[in-house]
């Protein structure tokens, strides 16, 4: 009698994985074979063979941290059996939704089949082996994407889905796919195996041209706190004339290079109610449409606020009596950007229909910390006082994210845009908005005017 063999074929496992055959009486021993090209041959030495029939042999496949077991009945007089074991991790589900409410575990966002540049999404993925075991309980799963970036947010313990926050690329010149690849991660080799890939198309971003707009001057030399004031503001908004500069901004405004871009920096202290602020304005020749674009960055540890999270952000547009601060009016308007809880961005407007504080119009996006992003706004007046046909449009990273039509900017008088504003501060107007730390906002690549995009 020659050596006996048990051949295990179609093994969906990595080369080098092992299969152990536990043979009961009359042999009562274990033998190991190695997987090579999806086949393993387990050798039973001739000296160990004892003829028997209907022997139930237990087979155990070990592939890293992954295991699978089964059994086969053989006659030891002819111990050559063919059996299939499978530990492949198979995609059970992949889903990508809009990222809402600043919470990756919030599944209320709409399912998407095409990605919009600069947007953030909730990705949910599940791996399951052929025995129905969920990967993740013992195995580590790794995901990578070739376009944009992903951050692991955690595992939904009730469903064993992995949750990721995906950020699409800021711009995309040609239609292409973002390919999500995920598989079993091996700590020793730092590699993944048994990968699954899903490709999702990323839309083309047209971008907003600022060629027809005026540039806000960012000096080429640094300006320290205490040295940027009304004179520098007037030079920055030229050829517009300066309307006002709030003196409190002198000691908290700088010009410096931050993350590779020269920027106007605003320091927001935590020692006042609600925070230190920079406010300034420039006179705009009366017009019916005005637009601006600004590049913005919150510092990497930015505190969104106190009990109330939020604040005014950068530049804005106003006209007539220019109401703000909870004061309403029929003969004027204002429109600015704000951040809210968890960095949610919005347009904050006062118009003829505003009662109490300003009207909040969410952009449906959340600002990152520590990286620049683009914000743009365009205001078109209503055709006459009391006529609700004005328009507000806003862009995030050159993607149109808000169109608000039928706006009654002026309830009485002649609608007009006549000023370009800047306000950056936490609040609100009381200590509930005060942050817990000193924060910084940086503004650069600022363009404004009546020219078209």
Entry keywords:
single chain; mainly beta; eight-stranded antiparallel beta sheet; 2% helix
Overall description:
- By secondary structure, this protein is an all-beta fold.
- Helices cover 2% and strands 52% of the residues.
- The protein is built from one helix and 29 strands.
- It has one helix at 230-237; strands at 4-12, 18-23, 29-36, 39-44, 55-63, 66-74, 82-86, 89-98, 120-129, 140-145, 149-156, 161-167, 176-186, 191-202, 214-215, 241-245, 253-258, 261-268, 278-287, 289-298, 311-320, 332-339, 344-350, 359-366, 373-380, 390-396, 399-407, 417-426, 439-449.
- Strands 15, 17, 18, 20, 25, 26, 27 and 29 form an eight-stranded antiparallel β-sheet that branches. A seven-stranded mixed β-sheet has the order 6-5-2-3-4-1-7, with no helix packed on it. A seven-stranded antiparallel β-sheet has the order 16-19-28-21-22-23-24, covered by helices on one side.
- The protein is elongated.
- The termini are far apart.
């Amino acid at each position: 009698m020659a050596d006996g063999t048990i051949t295990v074929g179609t093994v969906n496992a990595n080369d080098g994985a092992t299969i152990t055959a536990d043979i009961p009486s009359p042999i009562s021993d274990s033998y190991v074979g190695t997987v090579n090209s999806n086949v393993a041959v387990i050798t039973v030495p001739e000296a160990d063979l004892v003829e028997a029939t209907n022997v139930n042999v237990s087979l155990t496949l070990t592939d890293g941290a992954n295991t699978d077991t089964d059994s086969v009945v053989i006659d030891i007089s002819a111990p050559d059996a063919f059996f299939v074991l499978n530990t492949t991790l198979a995609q059970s589900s992949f889903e990508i939704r809009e990222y809402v409410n600043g919470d990756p575990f919030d599944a209320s966002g709409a399912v998407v089949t095409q990605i919009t540049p600069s947007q953030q999404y909730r990705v949910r993925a599940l791996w399951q082996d052929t025995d129905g075991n969920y990967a993740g309980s013992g195995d580590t799963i790794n995901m990578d994407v070739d376009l944009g970036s992903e951050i692991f947010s955690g595992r939904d313990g009730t469903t064993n889905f992995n949750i990721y926050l995906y950020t699409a690329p800021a711009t995309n010149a040609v239609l292409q796919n973002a390919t999500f690849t995920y598989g079993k991660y091996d700590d020793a080799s730092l590699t993944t195996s048994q990968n699954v890939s899903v490709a999702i198309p990323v839309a083309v971003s047209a971008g907003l041209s600022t060629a027809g707009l005026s540039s806000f001057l960012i000096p080429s030399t640094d300006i320290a706190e205490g040295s940027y004031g009304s004179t520098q503001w007037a030079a920055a908004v030229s050829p517009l004339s300066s309307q006002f500069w709030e003196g409190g901004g002198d000691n908290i405004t700088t010009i410096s290079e931050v993350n590779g871009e020269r920027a106007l920096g605003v320091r927001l202290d935590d020692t006042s109610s609600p925070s230190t602020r920079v406010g300034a304005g420039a006179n705009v020749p009366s017009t019916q449409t005005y637009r601006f674009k600004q590049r913005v960055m919150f510092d990497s540890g930015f505190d969104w606020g106190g009990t109330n999270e939020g604040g005014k952000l950068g530049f804005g547009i106003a006209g007539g009596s220019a109401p703000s601060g909870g004061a309403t009016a029929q003969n004027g308007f204002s429109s600015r950007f704000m951040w809210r809880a968890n960095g949610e961005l919005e347009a904050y407007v006062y118009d003829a229909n505003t009662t109490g504080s300003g009207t909040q119009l969410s952009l449906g996006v959340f600002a990152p910390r520590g990286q620049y992003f683009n914000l743009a706004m365009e205001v078109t007046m209503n055709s006459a006082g009391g006529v609700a046909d004005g328009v507000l449009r806003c862009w995030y990273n050159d993607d149109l994210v808000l169109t608000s039509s039928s706006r009654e900017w002026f309830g009485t008088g002649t609608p007009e845009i006549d000023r370009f504003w800047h306000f950056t501060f936490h609040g609100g107007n009381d200590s509930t908005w005060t942050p817990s730390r000193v924060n910084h906002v940086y503004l650069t690549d600022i363009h404004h005017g009546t020219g078209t995009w």
